[in-house]
Amino acid sequence: MKKILLALAVSGVVAGCSTQTDSKKDPGLESTDQKVSYGMGLVLGERMRNDLPDLQMEQFLQGIEHGHEGDEEVSRMSREEIQEALMAYQKQLQERDNAQRDELAKKNREAGEAFLAENSERDGVETTESGLQYEILEEGDGEKPAESDQVKVHYTGELLSGEVFDSSRERGEPVTFGLNQVIPGWTEGLQLMNEGSRVKLYIPSDLAYGPGGNHSIGPNETLVFDVELIEVNPE
After folding, report:
1. Residues with Cβ < 8 Å from 167, sequence gap 6 or more?
2. Model pTM score
């Protein structure tokens, strides 16, 4: 569970909110007080939708009502009990997230292995000892970089679905970096390239971002890069 839930419990934000619990479907929004009350409820509801996906609306509204009354005798839970419930829910959400991520990681790994097995049979695709696959699209005649070198490249990175998650071409600007500063699949793959060549790299998850993923890349994703080696050790 996200930090805002603990903040609500500790700081008493909920106790400072008001709501109407009568049977009116659409209460008035004429006065400033009415508009502010509705606006506060709307904002809090939006935050709760993201932070508390299992929100029980009846109990939530009663908690707001009791907190706004400011009478501790009507409160059905102590602060300690609220804190304990929040911590238990946080653990429950974390376990659920971990289970979902593990399932996705397994699914992605299996899909990647199936793709690479089939892809290795295509003409022009070579597989290295590490499991990296590469396909030469354009042959260059320049020098090959070493792991300690800097390179300037243009690239497009895709998931197996074909979704582009990163592209220097789309940004219109090549990138320069050290070969020892990138994922292992790039470090190995670009050393196979001559300056001026263009290669497609098929990178197993173990040579990419592994079970942790990265930004828009899920756990154990196999990645496909279309890379053009423009220059080795650019000034």
Report:
1. 155, 156, 157
2. 0.70
In the residue annotation, 26 being an active-site residue is answered as no
Half-sphere exposure of 217 (CA within 13 A, CB side): 23
What is the tens place of the pLDDT at every residue in 26-65? 889 999 999 998 898 889 888 888 878 788 888 888 888 8
Set 51, 60, 183, 206: catalytic member = 183
Encode pLDDT of 179-229 as tens digits: 999 999 999 999 999 999 999 999 999 999 999 998 889 999 999 999 999
Q: Sign of dihedral through CA atoms 66, 70, 76, 79?
A: positive
Fold of 127-232: Chitinase A; domain 3 (3.10.50)
Active-site residue identified among 51, 149, 166, 206: 166
List the catalytic residue out of 209, 217, 226, 230.
Answer: 209
Query: Which residues of the chain does CATH 3.10.50.40 include?
Result: 127-232
